[in-house]
Design brief:
Blueprint: H1 6-17, H2 36-53, E1 59-60, E2 76-77, H3 79-92, H4 94-99, H5 121-137, E3 151-152, E4 155-156, H6 182-190, H7 211-245, H8 247-254, H9 285-297, H10 311-334, H11 341-345, H12 371-374, H13 388-407, H14 412-422, H15 469-475, H16 484-494, H17 503-521, H18 529-545, H19 547-571, H20 584-596, H21 607-620, H22 626-642, H23 651-664, H24 709-714, H25 719-741, H26 747-759, H27 768-791, H28 827-904
Antiparallel strand pairs: 1-2, 3-4
Helix pairs in contact: 1-2, 14-19, 16-18, 17-18, 17-19, 17-20, 18-19, 19-21, 20-22, 21-22, 22-23, 22-25, 23-25, 25-27, 26-27
Length: 907
């Protein structure tokens, strides 16, 4: 081997073996395909060079006493190859067993009666034997292939040379034309007696068949065809019989059975309702079958249906139907004559309907085609006597609105309103300004037809898509609340995204309009929660279609609510004039968020800000009145709804409920220091909360009722009844939170102070029903705390095997010669020692293989865990990157704001 680097050694070895590439001359040489033998020789040379250049691939054990001619196994080893072979073998066997460890398979036993518990083994075996014999009996009746079994009058047909003395002829039934195959007719009937004969397999000319053999083959084939034809006919008969038996069940699916007590419409009655002349019991079955088949031709369910239309086609049809209904409504309002569809869609000429001599104008409703969208939405008979001036005014307004809304965009007023919510220009005045409303307050205008009943006005079918809330209020100005969802549905239908390019932007703006209208209808003094319930499905559909734009609308409202909270806290958290707690519109918006968005996500763009906002309300606002307690308990119930799946701990809700119980129920605690636990109680025994305690003399006979949120927020309920209702709600929420948090590890530390607070309440001064609830809550908490203490186990050190004491006693051997150590003169004892040694070696080898298997499985598990961790780390990196970018933008905005403040001279 040449000296130098491995690259030079490799080049030298390749040149020496003649495997290096030869330099090509100027002329192109014709390439020849290498032979397989040359390929093998070249591969062997390359393998030899590879072994010489890699000395660590071979492990040689040096012998102490090398004896010539002796072959010892194991002196030369290839650890890398053996290791790789072991890994490949484990991948084929052990890895497959590991992957299929939890897989379960089975064989389905389909033998007759195997899964029937009502049959004993004897009955099963008898039935199986019967079935087997039946299958065997269904085979060929005649074995025509065996010539020894063909007889005539007791004589075998195979022993007869000809049929001269036997009166055997073909029957009339056998002489069916076309049943003999083409080859037999060609060879035997016409070309079978030629001198030219085919040769057999050995090359010798075939023997000429005798007349008897030829006729025997003809008869056998004829009989075979006849038997096959009979078997096919029997099979067809059986199939027809089965279909006749199942015909009644098929008819029951197509025809509705006659009602009880009514005469059945038998097959004797035709489709047209004319009975036949023959009675059912005397009618021929074939005629009955033919009559039923003719009836099936008129069955509607047997006719093919139209194809399923696409979403765009359905939206276009609905829009066309609404526009057609609106045109007819306008014509009825204006007193114009009706037009047919062909006249309206074709030439567009207004031509009056032709009237007959006895026409009394009583078929006005019959000529209308409402379709599925306009039916039942108005009373047309009352619209005939409407004032024509009002009809013309309303139609003109509808046209103006439709033209104006198509040209108008999102609106400047909406941009000005949301610019405050974004906090870009007035964040520095958040603590000094006044509280802003979440939506525009529009004064209600008295309608022209207020003296008339609203049912007399028909609902229009086409509406423009509102870009702002003011436009929407103008649209629904004279429309009843139960018809507003219909208006929203028709707006969505008319402005489907597939009908125009800008409809998508209009529907995105409609999402913000519906949010504003929800805040508008839930505002005091007359909140309309029924209308809120009917608008939520439309808002849910729009949110599902445009989640990003809908989330932006909600975030803008949350920013405005947070700004109002900061302004209220800046005026004084205990000031009765500062607005800190959310009112009915804000509570309705937060409740709607829980219905539209998933609340169990770890981080959500809408729910997470809502959760932070609710926590800020519960943690920063101070209780000053019963209305504040009502608002806070509703927020606690919202937290209960949000966290019912994720079961995240919300300490603000627990603290607020405990403080609410202390404010409402009479107790034995004197000051904050005497309260158990460490939860904050800033309003305990304060000036505002001192009068909230239930008066036992006045509330003795009161019972807690289902709380009415609007009534409690507006103060329409009596004060003592309101206190009793709120205390009942607080106890119920504490019970539900305990059920939700009982699986937490810190449940004992969380609810032990609450149990002590409940134990310090004076149940005797409460109404009887509230006292019962309080006692049941105490018992339930004591049981849950007891089970939690029993389930908790203290930490212990891991149990180890005791380490033995080291011994220093020397080990003595009887013989010092190494070759005499295993030579025992006792043969049995020597064989036993060999077996023990062999067992020890096998045991070591098994342990070594088991360790290798364990390492291999551990490596495979580590690969899976590493891949799983890699995916998790990548996902977390993306999340942290987005959070860091948002935080960086927020800090940059804060620095810009501080610079603006310093420029303006403020600190």
């Amino acid at each position: 081997m040449a000296k130098g680097s491995q690259l030079s050694q490799l080049k030298a070895a390749l040149n020496q073996a003649g495997l290096s590439r030869q330099q090509q001359n100027g002329k192109k040489r014709k390439r020849t395909a290498p032979d397989d033998g040359e390929k093998e020789k070249k591969a062997a040379k390359l393998q030899e060079i590879h072994q010489k250049l890699n000395p660590f691939d071979v492990k040689v054990t040096k012998l102490k006493h090398d004896v010539g001619g002796r072959k010892i196994i194991g002196t030369v080893g290839r650890p890398a190859q053996s290791k790789q072979a072991g890994i490949e073998q484990r991948k084929k066997t052990l890895l497959k067993e590991y992957e299929e460890k939890n897989h379960a398979g089975g064989i389905v036993d389909r033998r007759f009666g195997e899964n029937d518990p009502t049959m004993n083994p004897e009955e099963r075996m008898l039935e199986r034997f019967t079935r087997e014999r039946q299958r065997a009996s269904k085979g060929a009746v005649f074995n025509l292939e065996d010539e020894d079994e063909l007889t005539h009058y007791g004589q075998s047909l195979s022993k007869l040379d000809d049929f001269d003395n036997i009166g055997l002829g073909l029957d009339d039934d056998d002489d069916d034309g076309g049943q003999i195959d083409k080859s037999t007719v060609h060879q035997d009937h016409f070309g079978g007696f030629d001198d030219a004969r085919d040769e057999d397999e050995e090359g010798e000319p075939t023997r000429k068949k005798s007349k008897a053999e030829v006729m025997a083959e003809v008869i056998a084939k004829s009989k075979t065809h006849k038997i096959e034809r009979q078997a096919q006919q029997e099979e067809d008969e059986n199939l027809r019989h089965e279909l006749d038996q199942e015909l009644d069940s098929l008819r029951s699916l197509l025809f509705t059975p006659a009602p009880t007590g009514a005469p059945e419409a038998g097959p004797s009655q035709s489709q047209g309702g004319v009975p036949s002349t023959a009675a059912p019991h005397t009618q021929d079955p074939d005629q009955e079958y033919d009559q039923m088949i003719r009836e099936l031709a008129f069955e509607q369910r047997a006719k093919p249906k139209d194809r399923t239309k696409t979403e765009e086609e359905l939206a276009l049809e609905e829009k066309t139907a609404l526009e057609k209904a609106e045109r007819r409504r306008i014509r009825r309002m204006n007193g114009d004559p009706e037009q047919s569809d062909s006249e309206t869609e074709g030439k567009g000429k207004k031509r009056a309907r032709q009237r007959g001599a006895d026409d009394l104008d009583d078929d006005f409703m019959a000529d209308q085609e409402w379709g599925a969208l306009g039916a039942g939405l108005g009373d047309e008979s009352e619209n005939v006597g409407m004032n024509e001036d009002e009809d013309e005014d309303e139609s003109g307004e509808d046209e103006d609105e439709s033209e104006g809304d198509e040209e108008a965009g999102s609106g400047s007023e909406e941009e000005e309103e949301y610019s405050v919510a974004s906090g870009d220009s007035e964040d520095e005045e958040a603590e000094e300004g006044e509280t802003e409303a979440l939506t525009t307050r529009v004064k209600e205008k008295p309608s022209k037809s207020s003296s008339k009943p609203k049912a007399s006005k028909e609902l229009p079918y086409t509406f423009p898509c509102p870009g702002t809330h003011e436009d929407f209020l103008e649209i629904v100005e004279n429309i009843q609340d139960e018809d507003i969802p219909t208006v929203v549905q028709r707006i969505r239908t008319l402005h489907h995204p597939s009908l125009a390019e800008d409809n998508k932007l209009k529907l995105q703006a409609l999402t913000g309009v519906l949010i504003d209208h929800i805040l508008y209808v839930t505002s005091p003094p007359k909140p309309r929660f029924t209308l809120l319930t009917s608008l939520v499905p439309h808002l849910f559909a729009l949110t599902k279609s445009y989640p990003i734009q809908s989330a932006q609308h909600f975030i803008e409202k949350f920013n405005l609510m947070n700004m109002n909270l900061k302004r209220g806290l800046s005026h004084g958290a205990t000031d009765s004039n500062s607005k800190t707690w959310p009112e009915l519109p804000e509570l309705s918006l937060l409740r709607t968020v829980g219905m539209l968005w998933p609340t169990s996500d770890m981080n959500h763009h809408v729910v997470s800000p809502a959760r932070l906002l609710i926590g800020a309300y519960l943690g920063l606002c101070r209780v000053r009145s019963l209305q504040d307690l009502t608002s806070g308990m509703f927020l606690c119930s919202l937290f209960m709804q949000y966290e019912q799946l994720s079961k995240r701990l919300v300490p603000e809700a627990i603290n607020f409920l405990v403080n609410a119980v202390l404010h409402l129920a009479p107790h034995s605690f004197k000051d904050v220091a005497s309260l158990p636990g460490t939860f904050p109680s800033p309003d305990f025994n304060s000036e505002h909360c001192a009068r909230m305690t239930i008066n036992s003399a006045k509330a003795k006979n009161l019972t807690p009722a289902t709380p009415d949120l609007p009534a409690l927020m507006t103060g329409e309920v009596a004060e003592e009844q309101m206190k009793v209702d709120l205390l009942g709600v607080a106890l119920e929420l504490l019970s539900r939170f305990s059920e939700m948090y009982k699986s937490l590890d810190s449940f004992i530390e969380l609810y032990e102070p609450i149990a002590e607070v409940l134990a310090g309440l004076k149940a005797g001064k409460l109404p009887s029903e509230l006292a019962t609830r309080l006692n049941s809550l105490r018992d339930a908490l004591s049981r849950v705390l007891k089970f939690s203490r029993q389930a908790r186990r203290p930490l212990r050190l891991q149990a180890h095997k005791p380490i033995p004491i080291a011994t220093y006693i020397p080990k003595f051997e009887q013989s010092s010669s190494n070759y005499l150590r295993n030579r025992d003169p006792d043969h049995e004892r020597n064989e036993a020692a060999k077996l023990r040694k062999q067992y020890k070696q096998e045991r070591k080898g098994a342990i070594r293989e088991l360790r290798k298997d364990a390492r291999f499985l551990a490596a495979e598990q580590h690969k899976k865990e590493k891949e799983k961790d890699r995916e998790y780390n990548e996902r977390m990196k993306r999340v942290f990157t987005s959070m860091e970018s948002e935080r960086a933008e927020e800090k940059a905005m804060e620095r810009e704001k501080m610079k603006d403040k310093r420029r303006s001279g403020r600190k």
